[in-house]
Amino acid sequence: MKICVGLSGGVDSSVAALLLKRQGYDVFAMYMQNWHDIEGTLHGECEWEEEKFLAEMVSRKIGIPFYFVDLSKEYMSRVADYMFDEYSKGRTPNPDVLCNSQIKFDAFLQKARALGADMVATGHYCRKETLPDGTCRILEGSDPGKDQSYFLCQLTQEQLSAALFPIGDMMKSEVRRVAAEADLPSADKKDSQGICFVGKVDLPVFLQQKLRSVEGNVVEVFDRWYEDSPQYAHYQQIAAGPQYTDEQLHELSQPFDYGNIAFETETYRSGKKHVRKTRNKPNPWGVVAGRHQGAQFYTIGQRKGLAIGGHADPLFVIATDVERNIVYVGEGESHKGLYRKALRILPEEIHWIREDLALGIGEQRPYRVRIRYRQPLQDAVLHRREDGLYIVFDEPQRGITAGQFAVWYAPDGEMVGSGVINR
Fold first, then answer.
1. What are the backbone angles phi and psi of residue 335, rounded to the nearest 5°?
2. From CA 196, how far away is CA 200, in angstroms rounded?
3. 201 forms bridges with which residues in the sheet?
4. H/E/C letters for each residue in the chain?
5. pLDDT, mean of residues 16-36
6. Of 4, 126, 153, 196, which is the active-site residue?
7. Of 107, 119, 282, 419, which one is least surrounded by beta carbons within 10 A?
8. In this structure, are residues 73 and 384 in contact, taking their beta carbons and an 8 Å threshold?
9. Are 268 and 282 in contact (CB under 8 A)?
């Protein structure tokens, strides 16, 4: 069997290639370049060249052929353009998930097959099993601190059938040890950070390549709004469950609407010369706490980049209104605006890795769910309805974010399906 290893220059893919070579497979490596534009990146234009050079060194050390492929056009059309479009709508996409489904196990797989490969291997920390009928199961990696199954949540059965994950049963410390004993050039290399095959970026600067910067208000929401809000009172009432009508599922998945926090102005005289100035009248529900450069550059739960002081506890983004260009924030990690109990996935965004386990309309089933990478799995019930899939958590979740992926797992750690959070 001929196997192509997607070699990034990191220790994980290096050990994956080494193990396959030791197991007697016909192995070759291929490094992909997915990005050329360095605007907004924090490491400069030479990072990919350094990664490629390191990948070549690893290939020579292992004794396998090395190839280079430029997939930047595919990455731009399938991943980057989608990412920019999602941010423009006030949603927060996960480009790494798309990089795996659209690039590594699609465009890259096609290039590998053109070179004779039967399978593609990567350095992901996850496990794959194949049932007697050919159905592929994908499970969490054995190292709970490094499990990367989340990033593969959009793969299909066809893609999984051509995928190998040689280090999925290993701990990170063991991978480092194997690399050091083999004297691989990548043995001490730090784990990569940032957007897949783009690198670590200054996100607002990076996004300004396509999205216009427009100054607007940052509005801090006070606890009084929740005390006075009929929407929040109704939400609390139906959240108690445990059974929900279709209408209640719809209401429970709605984000809080802060559009009724308005500010009237008044004029006053200031200073010795009594210069006339304008200010907002006090509002018991909130205050204009600062300014921002574009609501589309912020995401739910964000703490850094607000540049607003004078608070005992940090401020967090609790909502964004792209149409009115307003960013809403709340003080403290326990702020009510950060927590919701349910989310919705549109019908066309529901993806079952195990199609044989798909829920029919009107059915419901308990699963363990995560809504971001490395989040501990949360107990929830999935409800399939005509207008989509509703996920209702046992406990309210912090920072449910439109555009991110919700991923559900069976009790034994098998990743069963995923979907883009609509709201």
1. -60, 135
2. 9
3. 41
4. CEEEEECCCCHHHHHHHHHHHHCCCEEEEEEEECCCCCCCECCCCCHHHHHHHHHHHHHHHHCCCEEEEECHHHHHHHHHHHHHHHHHCCCCCCHHHHHHHHHHHHHHHHHHHHCCCCEEECCCCEEEEECCCCCEEEEECCCCCCCCHHHHCCCCHHHHHCEECCCCCCCHHHHHHHHHHCCCCCCCCCCCCCECCCECECHHHHHCCCCCCCCEEEEEECHHHHHHCHHHHHHHHHHCCCCCCHHHHHHHCCCCCCCCCCCCEEEEEECCCCEEEEEECCCCCEEEEEEECCHHHCCCCCCCCCCCCCCCCCEEEEEEECCCCEEEEEECCCCHHHEEEEEEECHHHEEECCHHHCCCCCCEEEEEEECCCCCCCEEEEEEEECCEEEEEEEEEEECCCCCCEEEEECCCCEEEEEEECCC
5. 93
6. 196
7. 282
8. no
9. no
Active-site hit among 4, 99, 126, 153: 99
8: which 2 tokens? 């990034």
Give tens-digit pLDDT for 313-333: 999 999 999 999 999 999 999
Over the stretch 235-286, which tens digit does the pLDDT of each residue have? Answer: 999 998 778 999 999 999 999 999 999 998 888 777 766 677 778 889 999 9
Instruction: Tell me where in the chain the CATH 2.40.30.10 domain(s) lie.
Output: 338-420
CB count within 10 Å of CB 381 equals 18
Phi and psi dihedrals of 301, rounded to 5? 90, -5
Tokens 């950060």 sit on residue: 338
Q: Which residue has the tokens 């784990």?
A: 191
> At a CB cut-off of 8 Å and minimum separation 6, what does 399 contact?
300, 301, 338, 371, 372
Size (the chain), residues: 423
The CATH number of the domain covering residues in 2-207: 3.40.50.620
Give catalytic status of residue 46 as yes or no: no
Q: Is 196 assigned a catalytic role?
A: yes
Percentage of the residues of the chain whose pLDDT score is greater than 70: 93
Tell me the residue type at 187.
A
Token pair listed for 250 = 């719809």
- 335: which 2 tokens? 């702020």
Tokens 């501990």, residue?
376
The domain made up of 338-420 is a member of CATH 2.40.30.10: yes
State how far the Cα of 212 lies from the Cα of 209, in Å rounded to an integer. 8
Q: Residues with Cβ < 8 Å from 29, sequence gap 6 or more? A: 4, 5, 7, 17, 55, 58, 59, 62, 64, 65, 66, 67
